[in-house]
Specification:
387 residues; alpha/beta; FAD/NAD(P)-binding domain; 2 domains; 5-stranded parallel β-sheet; NAD(P)/FAD-dependent oxidoreductase; oxidoreductase activity; oxidoreductase
Length: 387
């Protein structure tokens, strides 16, 4: 059986690894991605805030050496979901099972003025470039703002805001600076009232302003103001933006999407096409667009393929995910949430504390060990202050 996986993010890497570990050479897995390496979302922040170099956080797909798995570096240019046939820049591929895990594409150019007057920090290139900006920033009005919904990793803008505050504090620039977060959500993490309350209390303690239920619709680079969806303007000296998210054009052109994203069965991750699945940010399954949810969804698809090969029952998706969030001041918290079908999303907060530093480090190292077969540490001391 040939399994064709499009995209080597959290979902694609986890699916390929599970199939290799449990089925080995019993299946042929082809993993396709246009990039040459993978970067954890939290690693982008580590680079942004001067903890590590870019070279330290890029995990090369060439290091994947798993039985039954072949990596193909190519851009997907066409998808035929009926025939499960894919065209790429290096040729055509066909699978008995097709799994679309291409994520969400980011479009900073769709927000007027963002490229000219601000900085996006959600792409790998954008985050790495912001490291140079922050290194020389001498203080002033900092605005972290989201420009559209949905967006990946809902806690990340709050986390970034706290890390900016830490950086200004470490440099003695708080007296000449202010930090504000503009978020379309009414509270930082709606499924977890405890997490939202703790974040907002931390903001208040540190003098960070929070403006919820609002989007940044444009920047005016000449006047250095952000234009908000509520009609107000917000002046800034440094703007860090979360750009517009869209499903990849090749997915839309294939007719896989409805309302912008791929609809799937909430329990099996199957699309409306036989033997075609979708996982992660490219779907509208109802969970946040975050790597840990893509990983959990990949496990469900792996379960279905394993059951098909060996017999037995496949697992059903429970919508569970965890997220490690930096609170600054060398504190890390863990948000534990569920987005189950037919159940109101709910979650808890563990921490913040220094005790969770080791858990966050293990989260990254365990996956690098499984996916790439080597040892790696995100930073020598997770949770250390930005510099």
């Amino acid at each position: 059986m040939q399994i064709l996986i499009l995209g080597a993010g959290f979902g694609g890497l986890e699916l390929a690894s599970r199939l290799s570990e449990e089925l080995g050479d019993a299946v042929d897995v082809v993993l396709v991605d246009k990039g040459d390496g993978f970067v954890f979302g939290f690693s982008k922040l580590d680079v942004m805030f001067g903890r590590v170099s870019p070279e330290h956080v890029v995990h090369r797909f060439a290091d994947i050496a798993k039985p039954g798995v072949t990596f193909v570096q190519a851009e997907v240019t066409g998808i035929d979901p009926v025939a499960r046939r894919v065209t790429t820049t290096v040729g055509e591929l066909v699978g008995d099972v097709l799994v679309v895990a291409l994520g969400a594409d980011l479009h900073p150019e769709l927000t007027p003025g963002l490229l000219e007057g601000g900085h996006e920090f959600y792409t790998v290139a954008g985050a790495f470039a912001v490291a140079d900006v922050l290194r020389t920033f001498e203080g002033g009005r900092v605005v972290v703002g989201v420009t559209s919904t949905p967006f990946k990793c809902p806690p990340a803008p709050s986390e970034t805001t706290l890390m900016v505050h830490d950086l200004l504090e470490a440099r003695g620039l708080l007296e000449v600076s202010s930090v504000e977060l503009v978020l379309p959500l009414p509270v930082p993490i709606p499924p977890s009232p405890q997490a939202s309350t703790t974040i907002l209390e931390t903001f208040a303690e540190r003098g960070i302003a929070f403006r919820g239920g609002t989007l940044v619709t444009a920047l005016d680079p000449e006047r250095k103001v952000a234009l908000l969806s509520d009609g107000t303007e917000l002046p800034y000296d440094l703007f860090l933006g979360v750009p517009v998210h869209r499903a990849p054009a090749v997915v839309v052109e294939a007719g896989l999407t409805e309302d912008g994203w791929i609809p799937v069965d909430a329990l099996t991750l199957e699309t409306r096409y036989p033997d075609v699945y979708a996982v992660g940010d490219v779907t509208s399954v109802g969970t946040p667009k975050a790597g840990v949810f893509a990983e959990g969804q990949a496990d469900i698809v792996a379960s279905a393929i394993i059951a098909r090969v060996r017999g037995g029952d496949a697992a059903e998706y429970d919508g569970h995910g965890i997220c490690y969030m930096e609170f600054g001041h060398q504190q890390i918290a863990m948000v534990d949430v569920y987005f189950q079908k037919g159940v109101t999303p709910h979650g808890d907060l563990i921490g913040p504390s220094t005790d969770l530093m080791a858990e966050k480090s293990h989260f990254g190292t365990s996956r690098v060990r499984r996916w790439f077969g080597r040892e790696w540490y995100a930073v020598d001391e997770p949770g250390t202050p930005p510099r």
